[in-house]
Amino acid sequence: MRMQRVRALIGGVAILLAAACTKGSEPAKPASAPAPSAESAPRKDIKIAVVTHGQASDTFWSVVKNGVDNGAKDLGVTVTYNAPQTFDMVAMSRLIDAEVAKKPDGLVVSIPDPNALSRSIKAAVEAGIPVISINSGSDVYKQLGVLLHVGQTEYEAGVGGGEKMAASGVKNALCVNHEVGNASLDLRCKGFLDAITKAGGTGKVLAVNAADPTDSQQKVTAALGEGADGILTLGPLGSRAALAALKQGGNLGKVKLGTFDLTPDVLTGIRDGELEFAIDQQQYLQGYLPIVILSQYKQYGVMPAGGILPTGPGFVTKDTAARVIELSKQGIR
Amino acid sequence: MRRIFNRPELGAACGVVAVWVFFALYAGGSGFLSWAGSATYLEIASELGILAAAVSLLMIAGEFDLSVGSMIAASGMTISLLCERLGWSIWGGIAVAMVLSLAVGFANGVVVVRTRLPSFIVTLGSLFILSGATIGVTRLVTGRTQVGGLHEALHYASAETIFASRVGGFSVSVIWWVAITVLATWVLLRSRFGNWIFGAGGAPDAARNLGVPVQRVKIALFMTTAFCACLIATFQAVKFTGSDVLRGTGKELEAILAAVLGGTLLTGGHGSVVGAAFGALIFGMVQQGIVFAGVDSDWYRVFLGAMLIVAVLVNTYVRGRMVEARR
Fold it and tell me: From which residue to which does the signal peptide run (chain A) (predicted)?
């Protein structure tokens, strides 16, 4: 009697688990040799693990995930996608550890904090798993034994944004950081502020809480009161808050606003002249390409000859916004 | 037999078995049962378990400490900043962080016992103060939010052996966890101080009348929780060769959850350290087991929540049956 109830409880959860977990839940085949085999392996047996630091509330990362999912669908391979619930590098390193223990045929990771993640990534490399880094980590991927980096170099992208701002006359700039603790974002702000300073202006970093848009908006409003005339946000969460702050204060168009990464509202904002520009790193490709590359590596042992596969930076401005809007609706840009 | 049935942690032990069997069936093939797979959840469980041991003692004495989460970030950053910026030996950094944590715990305890404000509110306040101060100071000093390079600190190798090495494939923190659980259990069940803890949480006025220094007991326990938070920060700072300002966020609730899973009452006066260890083990197994089962991270929290509630149900159910059986 006692055991029956217990068993029923366990069974209930098992059904839940099976129902909602559409892929990746089939019992795994015995792990195959980690090194690429000369013969082509059947694609459906290829297992790739993706671990990123992208919070679920960040629309940027849902485009990456769309890339991952479409890559898995187009190639017919099995992919699991994992990210910690908050920006938590210790939790992320443990997700990597668990994926490595599953012995996948390939591993895709973002590296926002090399100090915290290097141990886990090196362990994956030592276990013979081919690793590709995406999005952040362009400066360290090689030291960790990662085969390839797919993304943009953060500092240079920040410099590009700063130069564009300075050219449009910005003297007192703000860099709005919505993910305190992410080294890549720190690099973008540094590049941006360096470029502004070089052009004779001044600037500072404003830290906001990504999970709380009201808090972010009020902090930007307060900073505008101190006389900022140009704002660079590092992602949609920041740009939405900055846009709201500008609207509220009647500063739209007076204060130049640029952002990293595209979302529907950023694009319409550019079309309507509310934002100057968006720096695009085409993150869809950061999700899609590694799935293709790792599948091919497993099947045929082919791999681009190392280095950084740049997906950005590119700029979307008023001239190009309309074309990009259509694709953005499909979650591809 | 009766003595076994009397133990508060028996329910949690059944929860551990239930969760393990569940994942062994569903994710056994993908590495949950492997040596490396077991090591990943034991590592999580060990760090949470060390914290939960101290937190359960404090809860038995009738108080909460929410500041342990940001204490982890503050301690880790203290170590990293002293080593990276001032070139200190890593042992110097760890010593200062430990003294600092004891001071914070002391301050928490004194404010709680003197003002008689709920510890929930007092330590929520210190949670914010600590996390804000950590972000503020770090950015002021370094202009960044993460500080690395600890592996270049003086005497790093000896610290690594003690806090971050692997023993038979398992993290050394597992040994610390077992040792601390044994020590805390001995204190709670075999020492006079342990009786004082039960007294302070169960019947504070009666305890006071009997001459138990309730205030000093509580202050000592606040210092213990802060110290254990610092210990976890040390594990993580050494293991990951650096710190960031958000590390440890949410750990305070996880530790309380582990203690409750293990049969510690939210109202104080009753509980067990071994139970808290089982609670931490359940949490670690669920957290990593979900990854082994290949659940998409969008659904992660649904399963974490569902599994934890099931674990609590199994726990409570078994404990209920045992109480019946005793009659």
Answer: 1-19
pLDDT at B326: 53
Same domain, A198 and A106: no
* Other CB atoms within 10 A of residue B33 CB: 15
Probe site for chain A from B20, B135, B244 (most A CB atoms < 10 A): B244
Q: Are residues A82 and A105 in the same domain?
A: yes
Phi, psi angle pair for A239, to nearest 5°: -70, -35
- Using CA atoms, how far apart are residues A313 and A160, in angstroms rounded to an integer? 8
CATH of the domain at A133: 3.40.50.2300
Domain match, A36 and A176 both? no
Do A84 and A6 belong to one domain? Answer: yes
Cβ–Cβ gap A94/B44 under 8 Å? yes
**Closest partner residue to A181 among B29, B241, B244, by Cβ?**
B244
For B32, half-sphere exposure in the C-beta direction (CA atoms, 13 angstrom radius) is 24
**Does A328 fall in a domain?**
no
Closest approach of A77 to chain B, Cα-based (Å) = 14
Q: Domain range holding A254?
A: 154-280
Contact A20 B240 (CB under 8 A): no
ipTM of the complex, rounded to two decimals: 0.79
On whether the CB atoms of residues A270 and A318 are closer than 8 A, the answer is yes
**In a mutagenesis test of the B interface, which of A17, A88, A96, A108 is the best target, namely the one with the most B β-carbons within 10 Å?**
A17
Whether A6 sits inside 8 A of B307 (CB atoms) is no
> Does residue A43 lie within any of the structural domains?
yes
Residue A331 domain-assigned (yes or no): no
pTM: 0.77
**From the CA of A80, how many Å to the nearest CA of chain B?**
6
Of A184, A236, A211, A207, residue with least CA distance to A53: A184
How many domains is chain A partitioned into structurally? 2
Residues 6+ apart with CB under 8 A from B224: B54, B57, B58, B105
Q: One digit per residue, pLDDT tens: chain A, 333 residues?
A: 444 444 444 544 444 444 444 333 333 333 344 444 445 668 889 999 999 998 777 778 889 999 999 999 999 999 999 998 888 889 899 999 999 999 999 999 999 888 889 999 999 999 999 999 999 888 899 999 999 999 988 888 999 999 999 999 999 999 999 887 788 899 999 999 999 999 999 999 998 887 788 888 888 988 888 888 999 999 888 888 898 889 888 888 889 999 998 877 888 889 988 899 999 888 899 999 999 999 999 999 999 887 899 887 788 998 888 888 888 878 887
